[in-house]
Amino acid sequence: MSKSTHASDQDYYEILKVERSASADEIKKSFRKLALAYHPDRNDAPEAEAKFKQINEAYAILSDPEKRKRYDRYGRSETASNPFHGGGMNANDLKDIFGDDLFHSLFSSLFGGQGQRRSPPPKDIQTKLSLSLEEVLKGGEHEVSIRREGSCEPCQGSGYRNAQVIKCRRCHGQGQVRMSRGFLAIAQPCPDCRGSGADPGASCASCAGSGQSSQAVKVKVNVPAGVDSGHSLRVRGAGHRAPGHPHPSDVIILVNVKEHSLFERDGADLYYQAEAPFDVLSLGGKLNVPLLGGGQAQVKVPKGTQSGKALRLKKKGLPKMNRQEFGDLFVYVEVEVPKALTAAERELLVAWRSLREGEATSQANSDQSVPMHDSSLVQGLKSVWQRFKQ
Predict the structure, then answer these.
(1) Exposed site from 60, 104, 318, 370, fewest CB < 10 Å?
(2) Are 301 and 320 in contact (CB under 8 A)?
(3) pTM for the whole thing?
(4) What is the CA radius of gyration of the chain?
């Protein structure tokens, strides 16, 4: 049967730019390409809207095997009156072609803006955990308090009073009503129940029909020993619950390590500042220093140690996270200057200063062969020392 070349009677195959022998996949591919090209929201040409309608009309016939068969045999005379007779192209057809997001971008107006798309997955919950250095040393289980969205208990997540769903009067529980939009006969979500199929007047008072409620809970987290500030810990499946998603979101915990009154930290190493008497730094000796986990350790001070020097205690620092190793403890020694002296201590220091000054004078006059030590001064220093020991 011959076909008219008038625009309104243009051959459906020509509209979709496919051969009459084209497969269903070829027809779908061409329809998608043309629909994107002529959609009024994407094409400002005056003829774009009319062309877009033609493309949809052609695809509604050629995508249906029975209608395509009648069209191939009889032409438009059997289909022009109602090309969507017997059901028409619905939202699922278009979603299958364009995908969910693009479908809602291009065709939401055809479906009254009420098209149901899959709800987004629940977002992760982020919170903080402050730890002391002692807690970092030990590691172990801690708790954080969060608020998360979950199923409403009074309605058991249904969103309806007493967890009983009453059918919507308009759509009789189907969630959809059939609407004619020009040349399209479309099944769209019911405007009264918004596609749920339930009477909106029977909503749960506790959650206003959402089926969700905010809940305060405590979440346990295992903190590895040696963790540092800025490290994040993830507790899987402890976050928000959302309808239509079987898996809850995660809780992400950002660690903050508090400053310590005695120790400073650099990775797994610890730093401690200690004061040492002048004689210990000069003659050598030992110092007792505190340890982070409790108790003390002795650090050896070599003779002639200068104020500000760091002495190292191996493996007395923090554990290295997820490793069987420890950092070191570095002890910075500063000379201890006494605020008050006994009479004997003062006499000894004065004598020592006189001796030091005498040595300096002897060194300056060494070319005159002056004895290095004044025997009377040395004897006086020995006398003072004997009295000091008594």
Answers:
(1) 370
(2) no
(3) 0.56
(4) 44
